[in-house]
């Protein structure tokens, strides 16, 4: 589910030049604290509903994905970013 979404999002960009802000956001989402992630979202969105949803989503992912799962997701994304076939 989550991994498929990340891969599909990455592959939808023809040359895999993901905007650095998006790449950093995904990394922060997977490895950062809930507070740091929500603070990052708040840089772009001020809606309390969006910020609360970001918090809930981050907490859900942190509760379901192990550190190993998160590192595997980052490894897959790094391979996609570096691929000559991308």
Account of the 3D structure:
The chain is mainly α. The protein has helices at 2-11, 20-31, 34-42, 48-64, 67-82. Helix 1 runs parallel beside helix 5 (67-82). The model has no long low-confidence stretch (mean pLDDT 84).
> In percent terms, what proportion of residues is strand?
under 5%
How many strands, what sense, and barrel or not for the largest sheet? none
Q: Which of globular, elongated, flat, extended, rod-shaped describes the shape?
A: flat
Given as residue ranges, the uncertain stretches (5+ residues, pLDDT < 50) are none
The value of Rg in angstroms is 13 Å
**End-to-end distance:** 21 Å
How many runs of DSSP E, i.e. beta strands? Answer: 0
> What is the percent of helical residues?
over 70%
N-to-C series of helices and strands: HHHHH
Q: What structural category characterises the helix and strand content? A: mainly alpha
What is the count of DSSP helices, taking H or I runs of 4+ residues? 5
Mean pLDDT: 84
């Amino acid at each position: 589910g989550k991994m498929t979404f990340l891969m599909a999002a990455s592959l939808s960009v023809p040359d895999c030049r993901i905007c650095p802000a998006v790449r950093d956001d995904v990394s922060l989402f997977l490895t950062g604290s809930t507070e740091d992630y929500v603070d990052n979202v708040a840089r772009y969105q001020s809606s309390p509903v969006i910020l609360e949803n970001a918090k809930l989503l981050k907490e859900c992912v942190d509760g379901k994905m192990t550190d190993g799962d998160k590192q595997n997701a980052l490894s897959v994304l790094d391979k996609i970013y570096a691929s000559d076939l991308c």
